[in-house]
Structure formats: C-alpha cells, structure tokens
Amino acid sequence: MYQEAISTVYHDYAVNIMTKELDDVNLLKTTTKQPEGAFVQLTSSFNIIDPMIISSNIGDEMVSFLLSFNTNNDDLSNAKEGFNLITNFGKLLNNLFPNSILLSTNNALTIAEKDNFRMNESQLKSLVLANRKITILGKIESIISENDLNSDLISEGLLNNPVALTTLMPKFSFFLLSSFGLIKKDDRLVKPIAIYFE
Predict the structure, then answer these.
(1) Residue 11's pLDDT is what?
(2) Which residues pair with 137 in a beta bridge?
(3) Which residue in 120, 123, 101 sits closest to 112, CA to CA?
(4) What average pLDDT does this structure show over 145-169?
(5) Is residue 77 part of a domain?
C-alpha cells in the first residue's frame, strides 16, 4: 500500500513536470483546434461512456422485477426489448473499444484505458451523474473528417481499393459513435496522458 502511494505521487509529479516543460516551450495548447500531434490540456464538461457497463445484461427477470409495478404487459415487453437493444449496443461498443472508457468532451473524444483509472466500476458509474468538469492532458492523434463518417464512402472505398479493408472497422467504429451523437466532423481524437476531475 505504501509503495502504491509512492507510485501515485511520483506519477502525478511526473505529469506536473511534463506539463511545465511543454508549457515553457509553448507546446501545450488549451483548445481543440490544433493539428495532429499537438499536445493539449483540455478542460470542459464531459460524458463518460463505459462499454462494459452498457453491455452488462441484467436479464429478463431483473427487468420484470424493475418494472413489476407496471401492469401493462405491452409496456413490459417493450421495456425488455429496449433493455436488450441497449445491451447489444454495449456489446458492440465493447468489441470495438475493448477495455476502454470513452470520454466525450467539447470537440474531442478521448479513448482511455480502463485499467489506468484509479476507480473501480462502481465509482466510475458515479461519474455519469457528475456536473463538474474534466481536464485531459493528451496528444491529438487524429481529426475526424466528413469522409470518416460517411458510410457510403466507406463502402465505395472498399470496392475501389481492397487495401482499404484495413480501415473498415476503425472507420465503422467512429461512424457508429457519430450515429449516436458522440462525435462529429472536425472532432479531435485524443490519446490521454493524464485525466483528472475538478
């Protein structure tokens, strides 16, 4: 436990040193409108998406119990179908973004490794209700273009260039996120170095 505390403080201190060094040479930017490869420190409101939690199947019996006060069987059937759709969506996200937490912020999407959070799953769930802001120190890996979100262009590209098959699943992943309003054209994809909450 003592060693874990030392490691935590050391890593936090290293982040502070890196932030200062980047800032001293004017390489740390505070807006998303930056090119690929830029280091950014972004502070904004956020939405947290944990595919593993979404894909948790609570089962028909639990759904029936949760909705047991409703006497209308049609509503119960619709609710079960709705829960199943949510679960399947979560499973798809979990396959596309394994062991990841997605953080949607102003004009950016951060894909963070779940294992690097100092929170367990129950604590992560509490962040869904948070009204405070998040600060993400990271590097812009890529910028979403209109072509990346256009399903017709994605399929046409495969027909014209079979090598484009290697980009099919990544582009499909981001097309799916855009369909649910989680990303849009010109959003930045950020690889996080450090994340903390106000």
Answers:
(1) 67
(2) 41, 194
(3) 101
(4) 69
(5) no
Q: What is the spatial distance between Cα 17 and Cα 108, in angstroms, rounded to a whole number?
A: 25
The domain tally of the chain equals: 1
Q: Is 18 domain-assigned?
A: yes
pLDDT per position as a tens digit, 7-53? 444 567 788 888 899 999 999 999 999 999 999 999 999 999 988 88
Two structure tokens written together for 194? 């450090």
Please check whether residue 161 lies inside any domain of the structure. Answer: no
User: What confidence score (pLDDT) does residue 192 get?
Assistant: 94
CA distances from 93 to 60, 79, 100, 101, 158 (A): 21, 21, 9, 10, 23
The answer to whether residue 95 is domain-embedded is: no
Q: Which domain holds residue 131?
A: 2-52+104-144+183-197
For the entire predicted model, the pTM comes to 0.80
Contacts 24+ apart (CB under 8 A), 26-34: 32/106, 32/107, 32/108, 32/140, 32/187, 32/188, 33/107, 34/140, 34/188
On whether the CB atoms of residues 195 and 48 are closer than 8 A, the answer is no
What does each C-alpha distance from 12 to 5, 9, 20, 162 come to in angstroms? 11, 5, 13, 45
Distance from C-alpha of 76 to C-alpha of 150, rounded to nearest angstrom? 36
